[in-house]
Automatic annotation (TrEMBL):
Keywords: Membrane, Transcription, Transcription regulation, Transmembrane, Transmembrane helix. The keyword Transmembrane applies. Coiled coil: none annotated. Residues 70-108 are annotated as: Disordered. The lineage of its organism: Bacteria, Bacillati, Actinomycetota, Actinomycetes, Micrococcales. It comes from the Bacteria. This is Anti-sigma K factor RskA C-terminal domain-containing protein. The chain crosses the membrane at residues 114-135. Residues 120-240 form the Anti-sigma K factor RskA C-terminal domain.
Amino acid sequence: MKHLDGEAIALLALGEPADDAARAHLEGCQSCRAELTELTSLVGAAREGGPDLEPPSDAVWARIRSRIDDGVTGSGPVTGSEDAGRRPARSPSGSRPADTRPPRRRRRVGARTWSFLAGAVAAALVVVAVVWAVGVRSPDRVLASADLAPLGQATGSGSAELQRTADGIDQLRLQVGGDRVRGYPEVWLIAKDGKRMVSLGTLHDGSAVLPVPAGLDVRDYATVDVSDEPLDGNPAHSGDSILRGSLTF
């Protein structure tokens, strides 16, 4: 299953309406929902004036200015030679001819123009905060990966990545497909002796991001197993493994 890209999630966090495809994906993808929730909270904090963020680089500001200039060309104040070309000529007595344009309308146009500019800059700042936070606050580092192959009569496949977040938390990210289960798919880490195992959680719509228990030696529990678990209330492994693979560090 293909996840929503970062730009799409950032726009949704900023309040853009979700189309039917994005809405359907979010309903079935726990990972993208969690990322959207985090970014939405960040946007709210940025709009309220916190938390403090380090300034973006000059290159980022240059791109923001370029985007704003592209959107509002010709709507800002007139300066330089352009202003000279529009300034009414003086009369022989040195006084300016009367300006017959309605002054109230000029003030309204100016207010709309600067209101638009202020809104564009504010939106750009929020986008910078979101994009910067995505890049800085979520530099998940891949520690190991595994290809998941089918077992028995299963025909599916999948992949798993062991990641470490910026907060030092280890998590297992899985993406699988191709098989239907009779009960529900549960994810396990199995030790090298083939006897000890730890359940991490369940897959939802073929994907999951599951935290690894703190202190667990993942180099020992290096086998990723996906089982088909019946709805019988028994927390033990059913013995019906459908996918399995070994983490390579």
